[in-house]
Amino acid sequence: MKIKLIAIAAIAAILAGCNPTEAPNLSADPTSLSFTSAGGTSMFHITSNTSWSISTDGAGWIQLSTTSGEGGDMINVTAQPFTEALARSATITITTPTGQMATVAVVQTPPAPPAKPEEQNLSIIAAGGEQTVKVPSGYTIMATSDQTWLKIVSVSDGEVKVSAEANGTDEYRDAKVKVVLTDGTTLSEISVKQSWRNVEPGELLIEEVYFTGSPIEGSTRSSEDQYIKLTNNSDHVVYADRVMFVMNYMSGTKTSAGAYYEYPELEDGLAVTDMYVIPGKGTDYPVEPGKSIVLAINAENYNAENDKAFDLTKADFEFFDGTDHSFPDTDNPDVTNLDIWFKSSMTITQLHGRGLESYAIVTPPASETADALLANRHWSGTRIMYFNEFVFKQDISKHDVWVIPGEWVLDAVNCSLADLFYFNPWADAFDSGWTFCGEFDGDTSRYGKSVRRRSEGGKLVDTNNSTNDFTPNATPSLVE
Ligand SMILES: [Ca+2]
Ligand SMILES: [Ca+2]
Question: Which three-class secondary structure state does DSSP give residue 319?
Fold first, then answer.
């Protein structure tokens, strides 16, 4: 009976994995684990003949597959991804109730620092606002700005959010954002340029000018349904506030009698007469990418009396020239009027119906006013008119002409006709070509046709050469 009891006790002891005659033991293998910054799972073995428990020193970045057990076992250790600049370590400690102890040292290496700092550029419009900049991910980062007008809003893995104050100056201004790792290594240098305006050259373009007017059945005249269409050719929202539509002063066409003018050199800038400005305080008139705004000479429904003419009551802006003259203008109260900085007509402004004008859109800086422009930017010099054997000299300063600085110019288009073309009134930098409607001066087949910018691959073509960029004698876009 006694023998039998001993045998049962021995079997029980074997089943329990513990030999009462053997001292408790405990070991771990391997005794160290290493993780890359990506983290992941590794394992170690426990060899023991007794129960044990495991702790991790409160290192929250590692998780164990189990924290207690008995006898031999395999433990999975999972490390979280690591983004700091200096390595981190932890100790896994295994203990038994009877005082045995084993440890496994864990280290995780930091992400490899960038070979060299990344450099990138960020453009911000004058209105300022928040922008998010992508930087290499996988690092804990800090960011600083060297200008008080540009604040760091937040940093997180892979991105920095900045906020710019509005630029009230008339100039571009620069800031540098430095993004560093926790040991000070530079990850990224962001050169920030804030504009003095809310739309840049090439972003908002003159897509179309409908100067001919729609044909009237049985008439040699046309309807007065003239309009200009401006389109956002960029990938972001632009603002049309304070965009000024200007008309040329210089005539680059010979008169039908053969007279022509010679003008003083104008190296940089546009000599203009009429100046109409989209109102707004900076961001009142957003134009979404690919979208357009229409400036109607008169925002009236011409289709009501001429089925070939357009309904312009849905135009975004209109030229309203008042009623205190012999050809009173009509104001559509539902369509915002352009601000008049200068109009050359004693009555109402219209586009040259035979297509002998040049047009541009420009942006006067924030500090510029109509009064200041008219006072300070007058053009002067001598214009010479050649007519047969006669030569006339004229003092330009007596004319209504102002010089728009070249840096204000967003886009320009010359219109002319082959039989009258003499030269382009604006320098090649603004438009080195010209476009047209009709084949000769007075050609009534021009009615119902517009000049329209071509598009390629979903973008308008803009090479500052309207001979290339525009389709002459085009079907007006409002037909579609
Ligand atoms: Ca009008
Ligand atoms: Ca109106």
Answer: coil
